[in-house]
């Protein structure tokens, strides 16, 4: 087992014995123990009582964080003609059709969000095995298959976060940067938890939210009180 460095050991000690605390306490703890040379991302992991292998238990959605993510989101758009021009004017980083498909098939994926107009889906569909596992496949349920590409690009650039339950029923996302004010991080966290709560599927049985943990990129995690996190 690797020996912990002084910084990691100090962080572990600071977090020891703390669990099911308020979101405010967790954010303060994470911020006070972040001492890396870069601005860490504050991450949330939610353990849900669902089995995503069943269609009626899949949890997915999108939420606009009120204070943004602190991250620059690179956006690719599949579109032609006027819609391609709209996407470029809105700030899309990459715009294309067959040429973009070939670039992706060649192994070059230089974007964090993929948007497509409905008429482009036959082309995008060929990329399912590449984009799907990376959670980059455009989907009308989260607003990334749309004719309003300009708004979709602006939303993606403005702090919108997509979420999807993984095999074990865990939803994970970045909800801001350690450098954010505590109040802004708390607001983002509650907005994200609220969106996941609202996305509860019809097939969910028993306890929906089982556990919520917060951490920074390089730091240990701490569980937060679920009722407090939902703002109830």
From TrEMBL:
GO biological process: regulation of translation; translation
PROSITE patterns: RIBOSOMAL_L1
UniProt keyword Acetylation, yes or no: no
Record-level GO cellular component terms: cytosolic large ribosomal subunit
InterPro entries associated with the record: Ribosom_uL1_bac-type, Ribosomal_uL1, Ribosomal_uL1-like, Ribosomal_uL1/biogenesis, Ribosomal_uL1_3-a/b-sand, Ribosomal_uL1_CS
One MF annotation (Gene Ontology) recorded for this entry: rRNA binding
Keyword field: Repressor, Ribonucleoprotein, Ribosomal protein, RNA-binding, rRNA-binding, Translation regulation, tRNA-binding
CDD domains in alphabetical order: Ribosomal_L1
Subunit details: Part of the 50S ribosomal subunit.
PANTHER family, A to Z: 54S RIBOSOMAL PROTEIN L1, MITOCHONDRIAL (PTHR36427), LARGE RIBOSOMAL SUBUNIT PROTEIN UL1M (PTHR36427:SF3)
Family recorded in the similarity comment: Belongs to the universal ribosomal protein uL1 family.
Described purpose of this protein according to its UniProt entry: Protein L1 is also a translational repressor protein, it controls the translation of the L11 operon by binding to its mRNA. Binds directly to 23S rRNA. The L1 stalk is quite mobile in the ribosome, and is involved in E site tRNA release.
HAMAP family per record: Ribosomal_uL1_B
Protein name: Large ribosomal subunit protein uL1
Originating species: Mameliella alba
Gene that encodes it: rplA
């Amino acid at each position: 087992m690797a020996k912990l460095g002084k910084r990691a050991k100090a962080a572990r000690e600071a977090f020891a014995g703390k669990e099911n605390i308020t979101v405010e306490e967790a954010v303060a703890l994470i911020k006070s123990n972040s001492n890396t040379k870069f601005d860490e991302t504050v991450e949330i992991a939610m353990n849900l009582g669902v089995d995503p292998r069943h269609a009626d238990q899949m949890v997915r959605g999108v939420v606009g964080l009120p204070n943004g993510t602190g991250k620059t989101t690179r956006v690719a758009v599949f579109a032609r003609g006027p819609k391609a021009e709209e996407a470029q004017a809105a700030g899309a980083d990459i715009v294309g059709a067959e040429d973009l498909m070939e670039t992706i098939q060649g192994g070059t994926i230089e974007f964090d969000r993929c948007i497509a107009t409905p008429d482009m889906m036959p082309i995008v569909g060929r990329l399912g095995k590449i984009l799907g596992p990376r959670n980059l496949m455009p989907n009308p349920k989260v607003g990334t298959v749309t004719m309003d590409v300009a708004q979709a690009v602006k939303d993606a650039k403005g702090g919108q976060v997509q979420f999807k339950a993984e095999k074990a029923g865990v939803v994970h996302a970045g909800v801001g940067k350690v450098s954010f004010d505590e109040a802004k991080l708390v607001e983002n966290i509650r907005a994200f938890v609220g969106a996941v709560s609202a996305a509860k599927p019809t097939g969910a049985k028993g306890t929906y939210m089982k556990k919520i943990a917060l951490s920074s990129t390089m730091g240990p995690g701490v569980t937060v009180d679920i009722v407090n996190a939902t703002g109830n």
